[in-house]
Design brief:
Elements: E1 6-11, E2 16-23, E3 27-35, H1 37-41, H2 48-70, E4 79-85, H3 89-106, E5 110-114, H4 115-124, H5 129-132, E6 141-146, E7 151-158, E8 161-167, H6 173-183, H7 190-198, H8 223-234, H9 249-278, E9 282-286, H10 293-305, E10 309-312, H11 323-334
Parallel strand pairs: 1-4, 4-5, 6-9, 9-10
Antiparallel strand pairs: 1-2, 2-3, 6-7, 7-8
Bound molecules: 5'-O-[(R)-(carboxyoxy)(hydroxy)phosphoryl]adenosine and zinc ion.
Zinc ion (ZN) is lined by residues 115, 119, 147, 288, 320.
């Protein structure tokens, strides 16, 4: 009798249509991602209506490609997993409808996945410690998820048990990267553009604010930093013209590097505070912004200096993908946590 568990994962929460087949939570049999970046680029951000139309066009070809690449037949798939929250509801609905249809036709269980928890799963994919609560594992762990829509710190008990410690009260870190890139006339998505521009800049050139909120707060706020960049470029009264068009590359690079340094500084300091509070032995990092080299290096440095283990998502699984969905679904499958046909899309997290 076959003991392996093959799960088809589906992800459509924002502007990537993705499907993947993962065996036993860690063995990636296929990974297909169709990005809509080109469709949204001219608007400087994701347009929900355009995203949902593109998901409708792409979803079945992408799933078909994922199944073919995995070299399995539909009969070998043990469950269908889908991100149902948080995200753009008009986008999530497309993935959910496809997943429900396949689960019904194939007579397989349906598994609902929280997209943010799945981002953290990307950081745990290579370690069985946290997943299986072994004695050698580095628990407790503090987990930082930094994406375009979320900036959250969790107390992580294991793959399925996460307690929210703090989150952003306004812009997410990725959103701040995207908006500042737009101020600086750098292309969307802003994270990679700012990181590239920042390579030639001086992170100490401008002392942008580090918003820490109340003394013990583990929440984040990035809107003040974004406004500080705007004031820096347009003048405080906002009456002056945006000087960016007249700036040389070095000046843009200095702004990008100083902004990036401010974001990373806050993320690292808050993560250290959270780690201290729960006595964390491990630090986990996931989400689109986790692809940022300065953030990865600075968090790693802090982990080393404070005697903690650091687990970070491989770059290819930082931004949205379905491998993380199918991987986390394995642990829900093992725990018998299934959804039914009433599954709905939710814009915000309910756990
Ligand atoms: O996780 P993700 O793909 O989508 C959401 O769930 O939101 O994250 C996308 C975000 C975007 O805001 C993008 O600018 C940011 O991740 N990002 C980065 C980098 N690569 C992507 N931010 C900073 N540095 C990067 N290298
Ligand atoms: Zn995401």
């Amino acid at each position: 009798m076959r003991t392996d568990v093959n799960i088809l994962g589906i992800e459509t929460s924002c502007d990537e249509t993705a499907a993947a087949v993962v065996r036993n939570g860690t063995e990636v049999l296929s990974n297909v991602v169709s990005s809509q970046i080109e469709l949204h680029q001219k608007y400087g951000g994701v347009v929900p209506e355009i995203a949902s139309r593109a998901h409708i066009e792409k979803i079945y070809p992408i799933i078909d490609q994922a199944i073919r690449q995995s070299k399995l037949n539909s009969g070998d798939i043990d469950a269908v997993a889908v991100a149902n929250q948080p995200g753009l509801t008009v986008a999530l609905i497309i993935g959910i409808t496809a997943a429900k249809t396949l689960a019904l036709v194939w007579e397989k269980p349906l598994i609902a996945i929280n997209h943010i928890h799945a981002h953290l799963q990307s950081a745990m994919m290579d370690t069985k410690d946290l997943q299986h609560r072994q004695v050698s594992c580095g628990l407790p762990a503090v987990a930082l998820v930094v994406s375009g829509g979320h900036t959250s710190l969790y107390d992580c008990e294991n793959t399925l048990e996460l307690k929210l410690l703090g989150s952003t009260i306004d812009d997410a870190a990725g959103e701040a990267f995207d908006k500042v890139a737009s101020i600086l006339n750098l292309p969307y998505p802003g994270g990679p553009s700012i990181e590239k521009a920042a390579k030639n800049g001086n992170p100490d050139a401008i002392n942008f604010p580090r918003t820490m909120l109340a003394k013990d707060s583990l929440d984040f706020s990035f809107s003040g930093l974004k406004t500080a960049v705007l004031y820096h470029c347009c003048g405080k009264d906002m009456k002056g013209e945006n000087r960016v068009g007249k700036m040389g590359q070095k000046e843009i690079a200095d702004i990008a590097a100083s902004f990036q340094a401010a974001v990373v500084d806050v993320l690292v300091r808050k993560t250290q505070m959270a780690a201290g509070r729960i006595g964390a032995r491990t630090i986990l990092l996931g989400g689109g912004v986790a692809a940022n080299t300065v953030l990865r290096n600075e968090l790693e440095k802090m982990a080393q200096q404070t005697g903690r283990k650091m687990l970070v998502a491989p770059r290819k699984y930082c931004t949205d993908n379905a491998v993380m969905i199918a991987s986390l679904a394995y642990y829900k499958y093992k725990a018998g946590l299934f959804a039914d046909m009433t599954l709905e899309a939710k814009a915000a997290c309910d756990d």
